[in-house]
Design goal:
It is built from two helices and no strands. The termini are far apart. It has one domain. The protein is mainly α.
Length: 92
């Protein structure tokens, strides 16, 4: 009789642990999903920052050269060469 009670108690405790672990797993899923979304956003930001970093390294490598001065004149001041085609946006 004592063996049967112990076995029942062990089965009941085992079942309770299984139910508890299943509850923990399912209750943590929304948090896991939220963290995965955050991770994707951070990875996107890292890619953007890597692209900016590569661009800055390129600018640093050509800084002070005629090519850099020409590029800045085109970008910031809107200068064009004599043989460049100019497109004007009619919507502006």
């Amino acid at each position: 009789m004592k063996s049967r009670t112990k076995r029942r108690l062990f089965t009941l405790i085992s079942f309770a642990f299984i139910v508890y672990f299943i509850y923990i797993i399912f209750s943590q899923q929304p948090r896991i999903d939220m963290l995965m979304t955050k991770k994707q956003k951070v990875e996107e930001k890292i890619k953007e920052q890597d692209a900016i970093h590569e661009q800055l390294i390129y600018y640093q490598s050509i800084a002070g050269t005629d090519r850099y001065i020409e590029m800045m004149a085109r970008i910031r001041l809107g200068y064009v060469k004599a043989d460049d085609l100019i497109f004007i946006d009619a919507d502006r």
